[in-house]
Amino acid sequence: MSKYQVNEKGYYGNFGGAYIPEMLYPNVEELRQQYLSIIEEPEFQAAYNQLLRDYVGRPSPLYLAPRLSERYGANIFLKREDLNHTGAHKINNTIGQILLAERLGKKRIIAETGAGQHGVATATVCALKGLECIVYMGAIDIERQAPNVARMKMMGAKVVAATSGSQTLKDATNEALRDWINNPLDTHYIIGSVVGPHPYPDMVARFQSIISEETKRQLLEKTGTDSPDYVLACVGGGSNAAGMFYHFLDDEQVALIAIEAAGHGVDSGETAATTALGKEGVLHGSRSILMQTADGQVVEPYSISAGLDYPGIGPQHAWLFKSGRGKYVSITDDEAMQAGLRLTQLEGIIPAIESAHALAYLEKMTFKKSDNVVVCLSGRGDKDLDNYMKYFDL
Amino acid sequence: MENIQKKEGQRLLSIYYTAGYPTLDSTLPIAKELANAGADFLEIGFPYSDPVADGPVIQHSSEQALINGMCVEKLFEQLKDLRQEVKIPVFLMGYFNPVLQYGVQRFCEACKAVGVQGVIIPDLPISEYEDLYADIFKANNLSNIFIVTPQTSEDRILKIDKLSTSFIYLLSSNSVTGSTLEVGESTAAYFQRIQDMNLKNPLVIGFGIATKETFDKATDIADGAIIGTAFVRQLASPNYMERIKDFIEEIKG
């Protein structure tokens, strides 16, 4: 077993665990006991792979971006998760979890969402399977992300406003957990990132690991080696990064770089740069690194990118950071927006602002001509047009 | 640590409220008034920004308490003279992260120093408690109160009984705080199942107790019952201090 993967107690180093009230124990314990055996069933694998191929459109291409490569003086590959159905990597996980929920006999699906990408991906698979879907979303996010709210509603999901606290992703997660406490028998909670109590971080990472599984194969075909020099991905909770890193964790010659959102700057007070500012703590069921006050109250994060606007990171990321296996850095709003525009103009691809954070870090690196660099293009920028229009006065 | 005591036929009433709500300095005066009015033991909540096991009323009280400036450090300052002022047992209740940041050992020592009998931390799992913290609790003569729900398995209840002192917190239903107790057939069967296990710890029912009627129903079955949301709601009224006595008398009849 890799020292970077979860151990039998549900921990990555000293991070992880299942810090949940007794009311959630039976549901989480049921998952813990069953998720591995279900995922490994041949029928499950066949159904999962078939949906990823025919419904999501996988494998997603690994694209050698010529003009980016020229700019940075290295081979820059983009893993095109933006080309997936619903426009981001999120669907890899919701496909897996809906099959699992079905297998566990659950009739009712709940989810949390920030920008709405995970909410849309959940509503999508619920429509596909004809299951009841309730998505919790911060009241402020509902206002900011009207098109995604409309998408979810079209697919038959009920979108419930979280009106407590800051009325954003963290509070939507609290509301989803409360719903699960109140509905212990027939409900499955599809968490959208590699956060939450064990086994969620491991389960979500496994469903996202298809990203690096394909990348290795595609890179081998294109370059003759399946081992890139650098792998870059953005991190909010960290699900696309967890999937992008997964099959490279034990290949220590691959440098893993995780890019957090610095918002207006790490020291500005308006940031989501968790590893730079956070301390060890417990939120949403796991022990990880968390932005918090000295008294242990969770601090509100800020980023222009709603998908990175989370005060913690998944426990595996906390461990990769602490152990030094991953390099955790941050990019400001301004740097990310410029990188988004740059990709659009050099390659004709409008990235999600989340993914633009990863692209922005290329500007800060120096490469050898022979370096193979893979950037996870986790989502497309359609949902962000409003932001791009405002920022660049288009 | 001894179990909570009751006289023959007595129905124990415990009240939960949030420290620092409605005002920063109301914590100790409310405790004194509750004890005078006849509450048998107390749970004082220390607030957390993300109280996932709580409904809207207690969430709001936590939010307001944080705005008022309540924190763990402040709470222990306010409870400095607790034992001179309040003679009934006092438990602290809250989420794990503030305890972790304060330092688990330091937290337990502070509880002992001010005379707190035990703590209820819903999101501290049994396995982590056993592996990492049980010794610290014991060294400070502090009870860790565990929760049992209708879905808790028999094996797990036996384990909880073994690890518990003072009492076991029995949830009337699987829900967040602020629900309503309904003793239907399945609830009655659940309570009967627990009673038949002859546990060594007293049983105290919480969540959904709001009125004399629900209090009586709960204490027909268990040794005591805890009222939280219904009491915290009272604290929103400007003359809350005067109403405490009536509230307790109304429940205890």
From TrEMBL, chain A:
Top-level taxonomic group: Bacteria
Modified residues (N6-(pyridoxal phosphate)lysine): 90
A single cellular component GO annotation: cytoplasm
This protein's UniProt keywords: Amino-acid biosynthesis, Aromatic amino acid biosynthesis, Lyase, Pyridoxal phosphate, Tryptophan biosynthesis
Enzyme class: lyase
Sections of the chain in a coiled coil: none
Family annotation (InterPro entries): Trp_synth_b_CS, Trp_synth_beta, Trp_synth_beta/beta-like, TrpB-like_PALP, TrpB-like_PALP_sf
PROSITE patterns named in the record: TRP_SYNTHASE_BETA (PS00168)
Boundaries of every Tryptophan synthase beta chain-like PALP domain copy: 57-379
Cofactors demanded by this protein: pyridoxal 5'-phosphate
GO molecular function, one term: tryptophan synthase activity
Record flagged with keyword Amino-acid biosynthesis: yes
CDD domains assigned to the protein according to its UniProt record, in alphabetical order: Trp-synth_B (cd06446)
Keyword Amino-acid biosynthesis: yes
Catalyzed reaction equations: (1S,2R)-1-C-(indol-3-yl)glycerol 3-phosphate + L-serine = D-glyceraldehyde 3-phosphate + L-tryptophan + H2O
Matches recorded under SUPFAM superfamilies: Tryptophan synthase beta subunit-like PLP-dependent enzymes
Pathway(s) annotated for this protein in UniProt: Amino-acid biosynthesis; L-tryptophan biosynthesis; L-tryptophan from chorismate: step 5/5
EC number: 4.2.1.20
Pfam families per UniProt: PALP
Sequence similarity: Belongs to the TrpB family.
Subunit and interaction comment: Tetramer of two alpha and two beta chains.
Job of this protein: The beta subunit is responsible for the synthesis of L-tryptophan from indole and L-serine.
Name used for this protein in its record: Tryptophan synthase beta chain
UniProtKB/TrEMBL annotation, chain B:
Cross-referenced Pfam families: Trp_syntA
Pathway: Amino-acid biosynthesis; L-tryptophan biosynthesis; L-tryptophan from chorismate: step 5/5
Molecular function in Gene Ontology: tryptophan synthase activity
Gene Ontology cellular-component terms listed: cytosol
Keyword hit for Lyase: yes
Keywords: Amino-acid biosynthesis, Aromatic amino acid biosynthesis, Lyase, Tryptophan biosynthesis
Top-rank taxon: Bacteria
Substrates-to-products reaction catalysed: (1S,2R)-1-C-(indol-3-yl)glycerol 3-phosphate + L-serine = D-glyceraldehyde 3-phosphate + L-tryptophan + H2O
InterPro entries: Aldolase_TIM, RibuloseP-bd_barrel, Trp_synthase_alpha_AS, Trp_synthase_suA
Enzyme class: lyase
Catalytic residues identified in the record: 43 (proton acceptor), 54 (proton acceptor)
Function: The alpha subunit is responsible for the aldol cleavage of indoleglycerol phosphate to indole and glyceraldehyde 3-phosphate.
Protein family membership: Belongs to the TrpA family.
Descriptive protein name: Tryptophan synthase alpha chain
Gene: trpA
